[in-house]
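anyone else get weird line breaks when pasting these?? whatever heres mine. first is seq + tokens for prot A
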Amino acid sequence: MSRDFAAVEVSLEYFDMNSDPSFFGVADGMIAAIVTYALMGQDDRVQELIVATRKSIDDLAEEMGLNPLEHQSALTLALLAALDGDADEAERLIRLYYRNAGADRAGRSLTRGFVCQVVGLAEAAEAAAQCIRDGLGEPSAIIHFIEPFLPFYDGIRETPEFIALVEELDY
């Protein structure tokens, strides 16, 4: 898969970082930027965006009277925890999101890919491999011949758990 993050970075200027919050509690451009800079290894920019993203979530929660942990923004908080190097917290927030989502199978199918990518970025190899397996076994946007090769999994690509997953997919 392409790793042309410089080209992706150029496209970030077309996102409105201050637009209305998306499904994840912040502007889509904010999620795109934080992930792009994380994959580029620009840790200073990532840390700046983590602070800005947390503020955006807090502001939205206050404005709407929401608990971010009972909202889709829990997945964004999981991403931030992953990028802060706290895989346990990322996984905890994902479990909390799914528990709060209850029987919302449509929501689960729409977020499965993002969840797998977050645990991949957290370098939680076992959880990422299982997440992809689960996503392949239920409706989701996970595609068996694309997902394992995305850059979100570069940090775990050589782990026994991830190697086993790729071998199961028969490549």
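and prot B, same format (seq, then tokens)
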Amino acid sequence: MISAGMQLYRVFTKTEYKRGAIPVPGTRATAVDSNGASCEYIAVQLAGGQTLINGMAFTIAANGVATLGTANPSLLFGGRIGVLCLASATATSTTGGTSYGWCQIYGKALALVTASVTAIGGYLTMGADGRLIGVIAGNSASSVASGINAAATQAASGLLSVLLQYPKFDGYPA
């Protein structure tokens, strides 16, 4: 685990990765946020040809390869979830080829949600296109996640303050 010299809030090209600008995918790092709270991140490899938006949720394989979250994660039982961190709340990055970045897995973060969230502390799980949704009755058992909770309420889709505690899928495989 590393904790110094990281550039957490940007996307790196394959060339930058090969030059050592970001560690091997799967490497974990810690940092302290502006409020003095601990945060933890994992270096990830991202597929090319995507428009990456700050706060998107990804599933993260053991080898550090991150896949944009989908509404049907049934084949990812026990799989890790992370939230992509970019420089500002409205930051986006379009990748041409394989790229690398950091996903937050512990601490307070901003994550994209698809609809209103009405309960602080409410459980969130993966929706479509890397956005989170509130867990409600009727959600598929395979999409149930733990370790990601709303830290605020919000009346519409957009960025929501969430608390990450090493989120993962707890549902049963289909």
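btw re prot B: The chain has one domain: 12-169. DSSP finds one helix and 13 strands in the chain.
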